[in-house]
Write a structure and sequence with these properties.
Blueprint: H1 2-28, H2 39-67, E1 73-74, E2 77-78, H3 98-114, H4 117-155
Antiparallel strand pairs: 1-2
Helix pairs in contact: 1-3, 1-4, 2-3, 3-4
Length: 159
């Protein structure tokens, strides 16, 4: 059962963040052509999207190997097994939410690719929803890890 929940968490994350969000941005933008965007914009898009995905994947792999858990926790509900201890090194040295930072960076790449105010609006709405999730998760981390988490917050930015 644990393996099923873990796989479900990864699949849900991939579908939501890598597939559904860019699709929503594209649909909200009026389904513009997505192939001929110019060399500069294509380069910036590629760097943002690949960099964001790389940061997110690094975080997931690191969390699995070192934290012995999964990142999928939705508004205080454990979707997949949580990590067994507070993660403060590896990608978590960069900020307290490296996986979300990577996802946001990836989606900024989508905004640059589409280059519409509608795509930006979808990104802003997603960011607002994720901030609610982050605050919820921070409450849980404070409850679970107490002073250790407070010390981590003092030395590491949220993003």
């Amino acid at each position: 059962m644990k393996l099923v929940r873990e796989v479900l968490g990864y699949v849900m994350g991939g579908v939501l963040f890598i597939g559904l969000m860019p699709t929503m941005m594209w649909l909200a933008s009026g389904m513009p052509p997505i192939v001929h965007i110019g060399t500069l914009r294509a380069s910036v898009t590629g760097l943002l999207m690949i960099g964001g995905l790389a940061l997110s994947v690094w975080t997931i792999v690191y969390m699995k190997r070192r934290g012995k858990g999964n990142p999928m926790d939705a508004f205080g509900h454990e979707v997949a097994p949580r990590t067994q201890h507070l993660m403060t090194d590896g990608p978590y040295r960069l900020n307290r939410n490296p996986m979300l930072s990577g996802t946001l960076l990836y989606l900024v790449g989508v905004v640059v690719w589409l280059w519409t105010w509608q795509a930006l609006l979808v990104w802003l709405a997603f960011f607002a929803i994720m901030m609610v999730q982050v605050v919820s998760e921070e409450r849980r981390l404070r409850r679970d890890f107490g002073d250790e988490y407070e010390a981590y917050c003092r030395r590491t930015r949220r993003f």
